[in-house]
Design brief:
175 residues; alpha/beta; Rossmann fold; 6 helices; 17% strand; Flavoprotein-like_sf
Length: 175
């Protein structure tokens, strides 16, 4: 099945240029398909000078999120939850900001026991903001990152058809 979607990535790792960013961008590229546009927001960069992003930075990110057919939201697991940086960003979004957007969370955990903790909290927040979450998250342990390509191939093989169908349905509903 050929697909091509506009995909935006938002990553809430406090470390700039993190493995979480690399993982989320790799998933976004796999989901976007050949020739499709992607945009990426590293919140560590966006908020580098404090809790207020640079003038226009937040609005630009929000515009790109609203224009995306698929939103990839990445976070490491910090203290059994998604990061405060990602929470800060999500708390600043207006109600229904993700209406009509298909979202896919990506979480990176240090241990197997924590693999799904951030996901359990993040999915309801994204749904509250109006996102559709039709497929499971990509939840990896840090020790799985060296085999990222294999994990992405397995995830996309299992879930890309449903994700594509949901993105097309959301696009049709918005038209």
């Amino acid at each position: 099945m050929t697909h091509s979607f506009a995909v935006t990535t938002v990553v809430g790792n406090p470390k700039r240029l993190s493995r979480t960013l690399t993982t989320a961008e790799a998933l976004a590229a796999a989901v976007a398909g050949p020739g499709a546009g992607t945009a990426s927001f590293d919140l560590a960069e966006l908020y580098r000078d404090g809790i207020e992003p640079p003038h226009g930075g937040f609005e630009h990110a929000l515009d790109r999120i609203r224009a995306a057919q698929v939103l990839v939201v990445g976070t490491p697991v910090y203290k059994a939850a998604y990061t405060g940086l990602l929470k800060l960003f999500l708390d600043q979004l207006p109600p229904a900001a993700l209406e009509g957007t298909v979202a896919v969370p990506v979480t990176i955990a240090a241990s197997a026991e924590h693999r799904h903790l951030a996901d359990l909290q993040l999915r309801p927040v994204l749904a509250e903001l109006g996102a559709s979450l039709p497929v499971p998250s990509l939840a990896l342990r840090e020790d799985e990152l060296p085999e990222l390509d294999a994990h992405l191939a397995k995830w996309t093989g299992a879930h890309l058809p449903a994700l594509a169908a949901a993105a097309r349905a959301a696009e049709g509903a918005a038209a």
